[in-house]
Amino acid sequence: MKKLLILAIALIFVATLVIQQSGAQQVNARIWTRGAFGNGLAISQADPMDFELIRIGVAGVKIIMDENETIRKIGILRFGEDKYRLRNVVIGNGSVTADIYYNASQVGSLAIDAYVKGDREIWAGTLTLNGENYNAYVIHAPRFLRPIEKARRIHEYCKNNPVRCRAVIKDVGSIICDPEEDNVTCRDKIKTFCEEHPDDNRCKALRLAYCRTHLEDSTCRAEIRGVCENNATENACNVLGTVYNKNIEKNPEVVRKAPRWLITVRNRLGPQAAA
Fold first, then answer.
1. Are residues 79 and 193 in the same domain?
2. DSSP states of 143-170
3. Would the pLDDT of 3 be above 70?
4. Band (63; pLDDT cuts 50, 70, 90)
């Protein structure tokens, strides 16, 4: 776990370095979206006894640069003792693709998908490096968000969806920001409240609403999985079920080891999802 923490710090450092090279005076960066992140194996497609330990970190890093916000998708690969940068990173809903670079030269590519196994995600796919082809498997490292991080997501959701934000809260209980205060926006008051009360049902509902539309983030998928394990009838489970179902279609045998909640969701979604 310590090495993965170092990997996360390295991602932030790389993002900050890239932006500083552009001439920005003030740069602040933090991981906002997590793609594949963990330790695993790369196994040669030509010889199953030819394998190497790998460590992958892929993330969308939110960068605040001279008061402007942007998200850069970056990644790092450790293949044995060798270090590589990942460029042209694409983080999808349960998928990651990237080109592998050593210094300024492209030396390979990566394409992996997330499969759910119990309460964990396993990333599996292909990796090409220096002319050799590998099957890659990465055990995703779970990440537990701090209350302030959860509150930031809620703030973003309420900023972009103010009407829906109020509706979500009202479905659960009273509006947090009533009565409104002078010089304090509703979303700011919600953010402060949810940072101090992350387990409040209204705050949980807002995080779930945010995560329904951010399934490219592994921490969002983990949050929805936690809900589905206890209540597979939650509508968010349908959305998450379609993400994993795409990968099950690539490897139908996976469904036999899928968690019970996913089987329930697949059956509910009908023949097309269960095919």
1. no
2. -PPPHHHHHHHHHHHHHH-HHHHHHHHH
3. no
4. confident
**Domain end (from 95, 114, 140):** 140
Whole-Å CA distances, 4 to 7, 61, 144, 161? 5, 16, 14, 34
In which domain, by residue range, is 205 found?
Answer: 147-274
Number of domains in the chain: 2
- Beta strand 132-140 with 27-44 is antiparallel
C-beta separation of 110 from 127 below 8 A: yes
Contact between residue 11 and residue 74 where contact means Cβ atoms under 8 Å apart: yes
My answer on whether 125 and 16 are in the same domain is yes
Query: Which parts of the chain fold into alpha helices (H)?
Result: 2-20, 147-160, 162-172, 186-196, 201-212, 218-230, 235-250, 260-269, 271-274
Domain boundary among 107, 140, 173: 140
Say if residue 27 is exposed, middle or buried (CB neighbours under 10 Å; 0-12, 13-18, 19+).
middle
Same domain, 207 and 171: yes
Residue 103 zone, left/alpha/beta (φ > 0; ψ -120 to 50; rest): left
Question: How is residue 94 written in tokens?
Answer: 């349960």
Q: Return the SS3 of 132.
A: strand
Rounded CA-CA distance 54/75 in Å is 13
* Entry pTM: 0.84
pLDDT, one tens digit per residue, over 159-216 is 999 999 989 988 888 878 776 666 678 889 999 999 999 999 999 999 999 999 999 9
